[in-house]
Amino acid sequence: MAGPDAKGDAKGFVSLVSSGPGDPELLTLRAAARLRQAEVVLYDDLSSGPILELANPDAELVPVGKRAGRPSAKQEHVNALLVEYALAGQRVVRLKSGDAGIFGRLEEEIIALNEAGIAFEIVPGVPSAVAAAAAAQIPLTRRLTARRLQFLTGADVTGALPRDINWAAIADPATTTVVFMGQRSFPDLARGLQEHGLSGETPALFAEAVSHPHQRLIRTTIAALAEMLADAPVTQPALILYGPLAQGPDQG
Ligand SMILES: C[S@@+](CC[C@H](N)C(=O)[O-])C[C@H]1O[C@@H](n2cnc3c(N)ncnc32)[C@H](O)[C@@H]1O
Question: Is the C-beta atom of 209 inside 6 A of ligand 1?
Fold first, then answer.
């Protein structure tokens, strides 16, 4: 298996590590091992907190999330840092929330590492959507009535609802849809869904700060949630899951 032990030449090795939704118990054993071996850890806001306590105490911890500044050049800056640390021969962990491959701009980092000829691995993890369903004690699929599962971003690069949404797909009532980064745009999304035939009474689950001590789960409907979020400040990461399973298991 390729891994940081493959380090042998002057170039370092980068582990693109998924940190799960936040609770260290939801890290994979491989993620924890890479943190213990790291010489440098570049982490996002959502990967900070108790997970970082698992890092090698001698590792340099480098925040690269929004709070670290540089909003416009942020991704380029992260790419450059990854390459720079690796070229200096370091064992680098790039920690990304949930599963690194879901709405995590992983591709840009893979391209930068390939271009610089730096060896890397990807360590998969628990996506926040999967952790949210577990916290709400529901499955994400159901025979006949939820045969499709889709993940959607509620924010384009400007933070607004993406314009080129496939409305037919996301207004399909026999589907479980999970919206990431959708708190601000959900009122618009819910309006569009109803215009495309989805009932306002469709069950919805609002899952905030999943797996954190202040986790909040609210079972509601898409229409009521749109109203609730219209004036609500965004203070925590949250997901919106809608579809038949959002109201809980079918007891009948
Ligand atoms: C940039 S995306 C990264 C998603 C991540 N790669 C994943 O697999 O969960 C950030 C968004 O993921 C969701 N998210 C991440 N962690 C979360 C958590 N612990 N609770 C609720 N939502 C979370 C929120 O919608 C947040 O705005």
Answer: yes
186 lines ligand 1 (CB under 6 A): no
Specify the amino acid at residue 51.
Answer: I
- pLDDT tens digits for range 188-204: 999 999 999 999 999 99
Among 17, 157, 179, residue whose Cα is nearest residue 74: 157
Token digits of residue 88: 């200096």
Give residue-wise pLDDT tens across range 40-98. 999 999 999 999 999 999 999 999 986 554 454 588 999 999 999 999 999 999 999 99
Q: Evaluate: CB of 152 within 6 angstroms of ligand 1.
A: no
Listed by start position, the domains of the chain span: 4-125, 129-247
Is the distance from CB of 47 to CB of 153 less than 8 angstroms? no
Q: Locate 171 and state its tokens.
A: 């207004």
Q: Active-site positions? A: 44, 66
The confidence score (pLDDT) of residue 69 equals: 47
User: How high is the pLDDT of residue 3?
Assistant: 54
The CATH architecture one would assign to domain 129-247 is 2-Layer Sandwich (3.30)
What is residue 159's predicted lDDT score, i.e. its pLDDT?
A: 83
Q: 50 and 95 in contact (C-beta within 8 Å)?
A: no
Question: Whose Cα sits closest to atom 22 in ligand 1?
Answer: 238
Q: How many Å lie between the centroid of ligand 1 and the Cα of residue 212?
A: 12
Ligand 1 close to Cβ of residue 43 (< 6 A): no
The CATH class for the domain spanning 4-125 reads alpha beta
